[in-house]
Design goal:
348 residues; alpha/beta; Rossmann fold; 6-stranded mixed sheet; 4-stranded parallel sheet; 14 helices; 44% helix; globular; binds pyridoxal-5'-phosphate
Length: 348
């Protein structure tokens, strides 16, 4: 079958397909349902993550247009900014990053890796670090103008590569997942993932629709309240469908987002997030991250506890990456360890 995204140029930056496998010990610890994981923490580019798929399409287009400099934004521990900067190095481009001061600005985690890449980073302060998507576009446009006046050809990529071309990468992922589920004879009913700008969820919703796979995609928001999050997914689905010349659109009821797991704010790990990170590590040897996938898993665990799924259901959790941020959050994570001596803690 010809892939839905076949007509669009793509640069391969990751290793595909990423693994999809069962989590039997986590399922047992939670008393069912069957759980599976899609390992997009193992995409390969800059220690992995969900932005690699988006950048493969955004940067193919950039290369075609002779772009030599990438400008993007995110929070100070942005995984998207890191992957963009690493991809820029790989393609011989420069990266300029306008980052919103978040919880961690020390040279640790993603910022340490930016330092090693020698990216040009400027940190700006805004009242609400969750507002990374609205705070910096103007600053990026100004920077692009300055760079143009010096003879460069820059491209401004919105935070999170939340744009139809980026979303195409996750339409492609939906086809990859459909193939893997079929090959492994997994009859899944749900996909659960962390949601921030919504492109990952939008691409999956559109892609599953195209391949006629009736999977309900559940986003666990780490940033926005439900209405905003749902609207962002709908806009991205519709704009991406247009780009790919597909008929499909979505309605409000087809987009499921929970906003109950954000906690005190974006980038601030909740107690349940830290517990989820530890549970997945201790049952399956897999590390989630403290900003996105940890909260996504905390949401999934809570929904299982509330009886949202039956023990006959099979659920696929998307590990969207972000693991380098664990090191920036060592105090929050180690603090929990010290404050909650359990069997695993006493072993340390
Ligand atoms: C690790 C990780 N998971 C999930 C997300 C959310 O993806 P999206 O912005 O496509 O909703 C991001 C990016 O913001 C991320 O870095």
């Amino acid at each position: 079958m010809v892939p839905i995204t076949a007509g669009l140029p793509r640069i391969i930056l990751g290793h595909w397909p990423t693994p999809l496998h069962e989590l039997p010990r986590l399922s047992a610890a939670l008393g069912g349902p069957r759980l599976f994981i899609k390992r997009d923490d193992l995409t390969g580019l800059a220690l992995g993550g969900n932005k690699c798929r988006k950048l493969e399409y955004v940067l193919a287009d950039a290369q075609h247009k002779g772009i030599d400099t990438l400008i993007t934004s995110g929070s100070s521990q942005s995984n998207h900014a890191l992957q963009t900067a690493a991809a820029a190095r790989r393609l011989g481009m420069e990266a300029y990053l306008v980052l919103v001061k978040g919880v961690h600005v020390e040279t640790q985690g993603n910022l340490l890796l930016q330092n090693i890449l020698s990216s040009t980073v400027s940190i700006v302060e805004v009242a609400d670090p969750g507002e990374v998507f609205s705070a910096v576009p103007e600053k990026m446009t100004e920077l692009a103008d300055q760079l143009r006046s010096k003879g460069r050809n820059p491209l401004v990529i919105p935070a999170g590569a939340e744009m139809p071309l980026g979303t195409v990468g996750w339409v492609n992922a939906a086809e990859e997942i459909a193939r893997q589920l079929q090959e492994q004879k997994i009859d899944a009913q749900y996909v659960v993932l962390a949601h921030s700008g919504g492109g990952t969820q939008a691409g999956l919703v559109l892609g599953f629709k195209q391949v006629n796979l009736p999977l309900a995609v559940i986003g666990i928001s780490v940033t926005h309240r439900k209405d905003q999050a749902v609207n962002e997914v709908i806009t991205l689905v519709n704009d991406t469908a247009k780009l790919l010349a597909l008929e499909a659109g979505v309605t409000q009821d087809e987009v499921v987002v929970f906003d109950d797991y954000i906690g005190p704010g974006y980038g601030i790990p909740t107690r349940e997030c830290v517990d989820a990170i530890r549970l997945v590590a201790q049952t399956e040897g897999i590390f989630l991250d403290p900003v996105y996938s940890g909260k996504g898993m905390a949401g999934l665990i809570d929904l299982i506890g509330k009886g949202r799924f039956t023990s006959q259901d099979s659920i696929l959790f998307i590990h969207t990456g972000g693991v380098p941020a664990l090191f920036a959050y060592h105090q929050e994570l180690a603090g929990q360890l010290r404050g909650d001596a359990g069997p695993a803690d006493t072993a340390l």
